[in-house]
Amino acid sequence: MGETFDLWKLIAGLGIFLIGMSMLEFAIKALSGKAFRRMIRLYTNGRLRSIGSGTLVTAILQSSSAVSLMVLAFVGAGVMSMQNAIGVIMGSNIGTTLTVWIVAIVGFKLKIETFALPFIGIGGIGFIFCDSSDKPKSYQLCRLLIGFGFLFLGLDYMKGSVENIGQNFDLSMVPDYGLWLYLVVGTLLTAIMQASAASIAVVLTALHSGLITFDIGVAMVIGANVGTTITVILGALGGIPAKKRVAFSHLVFNVLTGVVAFLSIKGLVWFIAHFIDIQTNDVMGLALFHTVFNIMGVILFFPFVGLLTKLLYYLFPDYKAILTVYINNTPMEVIEAAASALRKEIIHLLHEGQLYGLRLMNVDRQLVFAESLPLEKSSRKRLSLERLYENIKLLHAEIFAYYSKLQGQKLEEAEAKELERIIFASRNIMNSIKNFKGIRYDMDEFNGSESVFLNDQYDTFRKRLLKLYQEMKGIQNLENTEEQYHRLLKAFVKIEEADKMCINETLKAVAEGRIQELQISSMLLVNRLFTQACRLQIFSLKDLLLTQEQISNFDRALDMKEIIEEEKGKES
């Protein structure tokens, strides 16, 4: 068998085929991704339109998984209804059959070298000489050509690895375990490769070479359709209920369609035989079967989309975590109580934002907060940095919604100004958190840099943040507002001093050649965003803790250098 079957050639062919599919998919998405996303978002109003859009976009993108993941994103963002999402997924199953038709018609009818090698050659040369930033479209077009060439070059390798063994292979030697086994094999093959088109190409190759019968190929193709759901399921794991509904609908549709098709194999094969002679053109027959049973699934499911939607909402109901601590149970009729609750909630927002900063900078949270904060307690498992940021945004939204409702109450002028001042503090807090979010990857780069200067600055930023948060915690524990006023002003002075020191050290490092030119702008930008984030948190605490007179004095002090210098003298 070693003389007739080349296992490594088969594996190499499969690898080249998968690389081709990946390059093709990414190139098409880069060239027209926005247009396709816009089409899915806008032209899916109604079941028929959503099925049509799903079919068209998948046929062009050559990836049902990519379309399904887009649907996950749109449903999660609330811009697509569940019924329309199911329609797009149903359509994507039809659209993905185009890949099989291309492989069946071109890959097994024409000589590969006549078009695959020129595509790879022209695309490869262009890929080397095109710059991805200067000529992005030409660059992606070259990737598309290479991907298309690799797709069929890989198929040719797979064909060549088994064609000799197929001529002398006796199917009667294979034990008859039943078609269900091949159904499972097709499912597992697709789940592993994460691409139904690739697994079906393997099936078509085996069928063309006579290694499997038409019935076995049919069972494996049905399994491939079921296996393709794994990508969407993985994309929805740990996601919001809306994403879980999309993933489950994809699984239900593909599994039930597969069950119906598997139970109807004899009837469907009989139907296919009326259009294509399976004995002489089994590859085309299998491509037609793949299309027919997917269309059949859409027809069968179409009347039950509404029922499936209700079932999905029942299985995965929306839940709304209570992120607020103080305002959720405070009635708005008593303005004094409502204003006090709002102030406390914004201080809670400040603490959650500080936790985000500590975790982003890899500073031990217990150096500032000995106990877990409310957002941590509300989650069963440790929140990721991304999820913590999203929860903080939701908390801020609830705070602002409560403030907006308070505006509907009969407020005195002093009460309205107080509420306006403390809600302004919440905006400063959110802006500071956005600044920290903006420097996250730069900080990671500084930490992992080969530059000793950047490593040192990374540690300095962490110390600056820790000292500020410890100072702010101490200020909040003070009962005397006058003392809070002076301590806040001193904290602000320290922020300004640290900012100047960072700039001076950067200039010194530049003069001494300890930092590269490209790193200078990154360093200065990070310092500016970091410093501004620290200032904003001081400003927020000022508006939350001080009296109106002290706030006015604080604001005037920032405009008067002599007062700042006076405070610096007191500190020394």
Structural notes for this entry:
With about 575 residues, the protein is an all-alpha fold. The protein folds into 3 domains: about 5-315, no CATH class; about 320-440, no CATH class; about 440-570, no CATH class. Helices cover about 80% and strands about 0% of the residues. The chain has helices at about 5-40, 45-60, 65-75, 80-95, 95-105, 115-130, 135-165, 180-195, 195-210, 215-225, 230-235, 240-265, 265-275, 280-300, 305-315, 335-360, 375, 385-405, 415-440, 440-450, 450-475, 480-510, 515-545, 550-560, 560-570. The radius of gyration is 32 Å and the shape is elongated. The relative contact order is 0.07.
Which outline best applies? elongated
Strand residue content: under 5%
List segments where confidence is low: pLDDT < 50 over at least 5 consecutive residues: 166-172
Count of alpha/pi helices: 25
For the largest beta-sheet, the strand count, sense and barrel status come to: none
Tell me the series of helices and strands, N- to C-terminal. Answer: HHHHHHHHHHHHHHHHHHHHHHHHH
- Give me the count of strands: 0
Mean pLDDT: 82
Domain module count: 3
The Cα radius of gyration reads 32 Å
